Each structure stands twice: as structure tokens, then as C-alpha cells.
Amino acid sequence: MTESLSGDFKKALEEIVGCNYVTDDPVTRFTYTQDASLFGGTQSALVVRPGSTEEVSRIAALANRHRVPLVMRGGGATIYGQCKGDPDRTVLLDMTRMDRIIEVNTAGMTVTAEAGIIIDKLVYACKKEGCYVYAPFAPVHMVSLGGWMSGAAGSASLWPDIVSITVVLADGTIVKTGGGPGTNVHQPIFYNRNLGGPDFAGLFIGDGGSFGIKTEATVRITKYPPLIRAGIFAFDEIEPALELVRLHVERRTLQRFDPMMVFAAGAMKNFMGDDDEVAPFTVQAMIQGHDVAELEAKLAFLNRLAEQCGGGHNFLLDAMAESMATPSEDSEMDWMAIFNSFGLPAWLPFTLPRQGFAGVYKKLLAWRDERLKEADRLGLHLRTTWDMFIPTDASTLIGEIDCFFTDVDNPEAIVFIRSLMADFQKYAHSLGSIDVYNQGFMADLNASCWSPGFKRLFELVKASLDPNGILNPGQWVGSYLNEQGE
Ligand SMILES: Cc1cc2nc3c(=O)[nH]c(=O)nc-3n(C[C@H](O)[C@H](O)[C@H](O)COP(=O)(O)OP(=O)(O)OC[C@H]3O[C@@H](n4cnc5c(N)ncnc54)[C@H](O)[C@@H]3O)c2cc1C
User: Fold this and answer.
1) What is the CATH number of domain 97-223?
2) Where are the beta strands (DSSP E) in 236-348?
3) Is CATH 3.40.50.80 the classification given to domain 225-326?
């Protein structure tokens, strides 16, 4: 560690947050070199756990004065790794102490919370008031609100719901974005981020933490509809399944709690018995409503659309749909537990335009299946695959063709999976996929595809908000790609 960080700098941080919340303890620092991904966490000289926006502001101002790099950390649930950091210079800001709910506003239909809050706590606080807040299909017991907004928000669909973000800039300035009190001194209520000035909330969504440190956010909530039904249809080909998706998304805005999902056979097998027949594509649409008449009318209409596209019913699918008619008391994403029995995951996500989707999807599958032959030659054991896609709006499909291996403790499997994930993304990007994850390896890869104009805009914004480059240094500029010798 450099003299400035071990001595006076550490003392100055202790004065801001208290001695209990600053450490240079090697064991603690080591834990932050790990995260949920196979790509790695952050090396740091000091770890700090701020407790308020004001503390974060003073830390940033101090770090900026001394040109000390700050790397932000939420739940550590990245899929593609964190900023690498420097064991001699980096101060790691663990934001998870800032986990208070500030207000569940059921009159204005928003929730305001500190950015270090873990999503499950946020979901639970809203649920107690009968309200729903959108959450990722992710380990919700790990992901923080700030980490999600920074590292995954974009097409992962939270972004339209974010009304305001409180951000600390690199020089310590505290900014509240959003058309309510964030923008207008006469308006005390958060209600619409697009009013009274440019949409600066959008500037900080998916920035990977490079433009500022998020300390609070206000997010839209929705009342739960009391009843749900599912419509499930089997298709022999991808094209008619996509036609049903088109007819569905063209006529309505997709609601948060009634997604349409298309499962390919690999994913569907995981829900069925060994001897059950599985169609090549299964479309599952959730329908929610306020009374039985509303639900039945919606379901009848969906059935007509599915029939028009050649979608079929069968006894098993109808039984499955029936079993979904009871709303679960669980956290929305507790169904993620299904992955627990699958083994070591190779996450292979992609985001593509709906137009031209079928052709690209087939190429991605063919690419993956070639690489699975290589896994087989290496003696690795494929447990299952998880192939699915979902419309996130009328134009976009987000999907994954993940593979799971039984070789959980085999270091060779980990090396193989890491390269499978990286190579898959390079291939998918070359076919026009733009991934939602602005973090670690993926931030580098996304940036390597930027047009010259977009790159220039990014550089101008970064240089003006963070002229000394202290926030998440190394991100977007190729540290992961360079490591691979590219
Ligand atoms: C198994 C698995 C499945 C997943 N599935 C999904 C999914 O279906 N949908 C989805 O949306 N996501 C999914 N995720 C991804 C997860 O939501 C993102 O990786 C998210 O960014 C993690 O948030 P975190 O709080 O753990 O942040 P971290 O991993 O700690 O950090 C992520 C990035 O955000 C920055 N950051 C963190 N906190 C702040 C802050 N307060 N201010 C500024 N920058 C900050 C960090 O520097 C880093 O660059 C999945 C992850 C896993 C492990």
C-alpha cells in the first residue's frame, strides 16, 4: 500500500465514516477479490462502508483531491466481473450498509430507498404494502439496487421504472435527477423523470458506475392484480412461435407482471418428466387481471391468436397452466431455485431486435452446440441446457442459451466455461447482439463495438464528470480484453 493510503488517507476516511467502517485487513480485502462471476472481483488497498450520501460525498471529494481510485461494490452479483482495481491504490466502496427504505409512497406509487439495499428487501417492503416493484431474474438476495441500475439496468427492463437517482459525482457534488424535487425547487414529490430538463437519470443508468456513485433511488411501484392465469402453447418451429410473440407485443404494452416467455426444448425438459414429450418451442404467457371475467376474456383472445399461429395445446401443458393459476406468496424470483440443481453454469445471454431474430438465434445455437462437442472431448459432463427468450418490448427479445455442467469442482471446467462465455459474447456481438451487462468483461466488449460518435460522447461525459478518472478506472477501456491478448 502507498504511504498516503496506509497513513493519513486511512485516518481521513475514519474521520468520515468511523473506525469500524474502514479496513485494510488482508482477509477482508481478499473477500472482495471474489464475486458471483468466473471473471473476478476487485483488488483494493482499503475497504470502506459508507453509511449516508453525505459520507459518500466527503469520501469522493477526499479521493478526488488525492487522485485515489474508487471502485464501487453492491452485492457482487456480476456475471462478467468487476473493475480489477489495484492492491496498492484502490479504495473499494462497499455500498451495502446503505440499505434503508426511505419511503413506500402508495399514494404516488413510488418507493424510495438507499442504493445499497438488496433487492429482496426492497421487494418485501413493497409487498407488505400490496405493491410490486420490478426485480431481476437474478439472485435477489445478492443484487443491490445501485449495482443493478449501474451494471445491468438497460434492457434488463428496470429503466422505465426509475424515476430519480441520487448520485454523488467524483468531486463530491450531490445530484438528484428526475423531474420532481431533483429538478424543480417548487416540487417536493417525485413523479416523472422526463420533465423540466434533460433526462439525467438515464445518463447514470447502465453507466457501470463510471459517471457517479448512486446513493438513493426512487422507483415506480404497481398494485398487484389479484388473479393470474397462464396460456401455454406448443410449436414445432421457431417462426410461428415468433409470430405469436409479434401479435402479442404489437397490440399492447407489456406489463411488468405478465411476461410472455418462449422456452426451447432444452429449457422445457427441465420442467417435465423424463418420458414426457417436449415440443421444440413452448410459448408461455402469464395473464393477470382483476376478476374472472376479465381473465377469461383475455385468455380466450390469446387462445385465438395462438390457434391462428398454429400453436397447440396438450394435456401436460394445460395441467401446467392450471398449476400456475394460484399466485405464489414467494418472492417473485424464488423460482430461480430451479437452477440450484443444474450444476456449474455457463451463462450465455443475448439481446437482439425482434426483426431477423430467428436467423441469428439459429446461428447462436449452432455455435454453442459446436463448443459443447469440445466440452465433451475435454471429458466435461453437460447436465442440461436452458434455452429461452422473452420480448421486453415490441422491438426487443432478450434470451439465453445457457449450459450447465456437473463438473462443479473441476478447475478445467471453470477455465472452459470462462472462455465459452467470453467467446460466445464476441460471436453474438459480431451478429449484432448488444448485451445488458455493463460490467467487467462485458463493459469492455460493449465498448469495443461503439460507433466513433458514441465513443466520443462517452469520453466527453466521463472527462467532464470525472476529470481525474477516479471512478471505476479501467472500466470500458479494455482491461479484460487486453488480458486476453486482444
Ligand atoms: C446467477 C445470476 C443471474 C442473473 N440474472 C439476471 C437477470 O435475469 N436480470 C438482470 O437484470 N440481472 C441478472 N443478473 C445480474 C445482476 O443483476 C447484475 O450483475 C447486477 O449489476 C449486480 O448488482 P450488484 O449489486 O451485485 O452489483 P455489483 O456486482 O457489486 O456491481 C456491478 C457494477 O455496478 C457498480 N456499482 C455497484 N453499486 C454501485 C453504486 N451504488 N453506484 C455506482 N456503481 C455501483 C459496480 O462498480 C459494478 O461495476 C444475474 C446475476 C447472476 C449472478
Assistant:
1) 3.30.465.10
2) 260-264, 281-289, 344-346
3) no
